[in-house]
Amino acid sequence: MYRVRVRSVPPVVLALRRFPNPRLTGIGAGLFAALTMFVLACVDRLLFDSSELVFGLLFLPVSALTAFWVRPADLVTAPISVPIAFAVGVFPISGGSEGFGGQVMGLVTALAVHAGWLYGGTLVAGLIASVRKVRLMRARRRYVLAQGRGPAGERAPRAAAAAAAAKPVRAGAGTAAAVRRPQRP
After folding, report:
1. Contacts of 1 (CB under 8 A, 6+ apart)
2. How far apart are CA 124 and CA 122, in angstroms?
3. Burial environment of residue 128 by CB neighbours within 10 A (0 to 12, 13 to 18, 19 or more)
4. Is the separation of the CB atoms in 65 and 74 below 8 Å?
């Protein structure tokens, strides 16, 4: 008798599959990230007295979730909306002085000082979106090849090359194959 090998799924994977898996549009992902970062910044201001470390550490998972939850058609928006969400979220903890000019200077200073967290979160979102896009392209290619019709971009050059190889070349027709270059001694 044949033995059937049963693959067991690790418990960590089972736990991760229970999490929600929404598919947000590009605007929805941007709103999710911006509102989440604003709420987390307000909580950070109340509980941790505007700790930049706490805000930066919370920004990284929000960036990852934004890139995971955006629709495949809107993957390019994840690395774009994450820095905007960081700027929206850093406003409550920027610590500017009174007045509009003081608030703007506090915001600009906070963005400059926390550029490492901003770049890190953007990099996380960009990497996740890129990996998802590559996997999507590979799956689409496998699907097309499984259908037996080959990619459309590969059929036309192959057909043209086969047709060119089948035609005999006439002397003096002006084609590149008919014109010979003199050889050097």
Report:
1. none
2. 5
3. buried
4. no
pLDDT in tens, 66-121: 999 999 988 999 999 999 999 999 888 877 677 788 888 888 888 888 888 999 99
| Segment among 14-18, 100-104, 108-112, 137-141 with least mean pLDDT | 14-18
Alpha helices by DSSP H, the chain: 11-17, 26-48, 52-69, 78-90, 100-113, 115-146, 152-166
- C-alpha 118/C-alpha 37 separation (Å) is 12
Going by C-beta distance under 8 Å and a sequence separation of 6 or more, which residues neighbour residue 105?
Answer: 96, 97
63 in Cβ contact with 82 (< 8 Å): yes
- Strand partners of residue 24: 70
Side chain identity at residue 17, one-letter code: R
Which residues does residue 184 pair with via DSSP β-bridges, in sequence order?
Answer: none
One-letter amino acid at 26 equals: G
Q: How many CB atoms lie within 10 A of CB 68?
A: 18
